[in-house]
Amino acid sequence: MGKQPVRLKAVVYSLSPFQQKVMPGLWKDITTKIHHKVTENWLNATLLLTPIIGTYSYAQNYKEQEKLEHRY
User: Are 22 and 15 a contacting pair, CB within 8 Å?
Assistant: First the structure.
């Protein structure tokens, strides 16, 4: 009932230097994929970007107003 060590084989993945097409499916029909992602997730993107853009715009406007207020 002693413990016996188990030899594990290491698996190494690599690309052949002669392999030319690494990710051919990534660029295939890219415009349709982008259109699908945008139309599918426009609400989530809007809900994420609206507060960020609004806060940035408010901060820039506030800074500009402070600058103009202390001008004279």
Answer: yes
| Distance separating alpha carbons of residues 63 and 69, to the nearest angstrom | 10
Whole-number Å distance between alpha carbons of 45 and 38 = 8
Percent of residues, the chain, with pLDDT higher than 70? 93
Tokens representing residue 51 in the block: 């507060």
Q: What angle do CA 58, 62, 64 make, to 5 degrees?
A: 120
Q: Round to whole Å and give the CA distance between 46 and 52.
A: 10
Q: Is the pLDDT of residue 50 over 90?
A: yes
| pTM assigned to the model | 0.49
Amino acid at position 11, single letter: V
